Amino acid sequence: MAKKVTKKTPDKASKEAPKPEYIHVKFDLPRRYDWSTGKYLGYFYAEAKENKKIMGNRCPKCKEILLPPTPVCGRCKVDMGWDWVELPQTGTVFQYTYLVFPLWDPHYGERWANPYASAIIELDNGVFYRHWLEEQDKEKLREGMRVKAVWKEDYNERGQGPGDILYFKEIGKE
Amino acid sequence: MPNRVAIVGIGQTYHTSKRPDVNYAEMVREAVVAALADAQLSIKDIEAAFMGTMETFEAIYLPDLGMAAEAGFFGKPGFKVGTGGTSGASVVAEGFYFVASGLFDVALIIGCEKQDCGDTTAAITAAATPMWGKGSTTGAIGEFAKQALSYMRTSGAKEEHAAMVRLKADRNACRNPYAHLKLGLKSVDEVLKSSYLVWPLRILDFCPQSCGACALIFASEKRAKKITKKPVWVADIETVHQEVFRAGVFGDPTGKETYTQHVACERLYKRNGITKPRRDIDMAEIYEPSNWEELNLYEHFHFCGKNEGWKLIEKGITEIEGEFPVNPSGGVIATNPIGATPTIRVAEAALQIRGDGGERQVTRDVKTAIATALGGPNWTVMTLLKRSL
User: Does some domain include residue A112?
Assistant: First the structure.
């Protein structure tokens, strides 16, 4: 329910119009949403939850592996069929950034932990994947860093698709 | 095309970060009233009204619903479009199509956004499907940060060049009474000393969140000539939207992707006989959310060769007094009321053609101008304006 809270009351003695001010509107969150994955993304979610695998699907025409998986290749405009490829869980940081500006979960209004590193990772078969990095020290981040996926170990916590991978961790750093 | 379409009225609000004195509808009304005054028309002359805005940025799903009276919609046909960052240009295209089709002779076009109610970057992160990529997207700033890194690496541009773009924008904004950020920056060092938002983008490398609205009045040829002595003709519009751009969003690290700017340019330039854009077009108002993106867009729109964007700023070619002025208004990094931003690009380019740019009027005579819009991921709308067809 929305609840209106006025910050201050206008001066009643003044004969002029009240000074404009912001009204702060309070919402009670979270709201509940149920999103459907669909058939293709659903397969990705299932393989991540059950087998800790990253799955992409391959276009029968251009042979490109698409991530996220889709039923149609946007470029070739052909039906993708059901040709699944397991993707390597190791890769190289192609590009990264370090987020200082605070971001909010747009659906539940929670503030995400910050700062953090977000990267585009070139998996070892050449497919690009966007995820977080474990390393939070800006000085130690670099392009070309070799990384591997670290999964949520608890089966019951998985089922969040891409979120089943906690982050990508630098290889050789324990 | 059955009907030629002209811009006969231009109006905008002043742009600023906070407008507690008005609500969304009242703010939009200011732009509509200004456009009507410019055209010397009454709202009764308007046959249809169209509006472009980023839905949910104000946490309102149907922003047009609550402003039918204020914005002049009441009892008139027309509808709102929302295409992300390009919304304010898509509404220009929408109005153009309807007037060109002959359905309406006089139409009102509105782009608007009031961003002082909350964190609009949260709304941008909601653009990603919650089933994929939620949380690893970084809002607009993060995407442009990656683009800046790519550009820096491949083009040979230095941070100083990006800072020079901000200085140009700031000088121009200081000459534009409607612009939001007027900082009076004097040196490259001042820009390079500002703090990081998302590495390597600094606070002065990026656009502000502004409140503002911009309204245009379109008329068919027979009406336009009666309404104004200085119609600005909408010669052509090209829209290219593309979702399949996985790796980079605003910069392509793979080198394999097709940029919508290239597709849009190829079509629009070919249809209008433009072979050398910097010779055949007199000035441009482009949508550059960051100074790095401006350098990048010089190249994408073929204002120069690949990896040469930074040389244009170094040589002063894109200054108000330069050979090919870009964003004499101060551009998007000075003023960004998102839904209004692309409409302002068209409005400002039209003012240059009319010669009504005031202190920001460019030195060279503008007969042909281009206005562009950018949305995410990788969407482009280009509008070509001319003094005579």
Answer: yes
Angle between helices B291-300 and B159-173 (to 10 degrees): 100
| CATH code at B5-120+209-227 | 3.40.47.10
Quick check: pTM over 0.90?
Answer: no
A122-146 confidence digits (pLDDT tens): 999 988 888 889 998 888 988 899 9
Range of the domain at A94: 38-170
Which residues of chain A does B133 touch, with a Cβ-Cβ cutoff of 8 Å? 68, 130, 162
Domains of chain B, residue spans:
5-120+209-227
**Does the CB of A107 have a partner CB in chain B at under 8 Å?**
yes
Residues of chain A with pLDDT > 70: what percent? 84
Q: Please state, in angstroms and rounded to a whole number, the distance separating the CA atoms of residues B181 and B334.
A: 5
Please judge whether B132 and A161 are an interchain contact, meaning their C-beta atoms are less than 8 angstroms apart: yes
Q: Does the CB of B255 have a partner CB in chain A at under 8 Å? A: no
pLDDT in tens, A25-40: 776 666 677 788 889 9
Question: In 10 A of CB A38, how many CB atoms?
Answer: 14
- A130 and B CB contact within 8 Å: yes
Looking at per-residue pLDDT, the higher value among B57 and B67 belongs to: B67
**How many domains, chain A?**
1
Q: What is the pLDDT of residue B222?
A: 93
ipTM (interface pTM)? 0.70
DSSP assignment of B5-30, as one string? EEEEEEEE---BS--TTS-HHHHHHH
pLDDT one-digit tens code per residue, B292-337: 999 999 999 999 999 999 999 999 999 999 999 999 999 999 999 9
Q: Is A17 exposed, middle or buried (0-12, 13-18, 19+ CB in 10 A)?
A: exposed
The answer to whether A108 contacts chain B (CB < 8 Å) is: no
Distance from CA of B209 to the nearest CA of A (A): 14
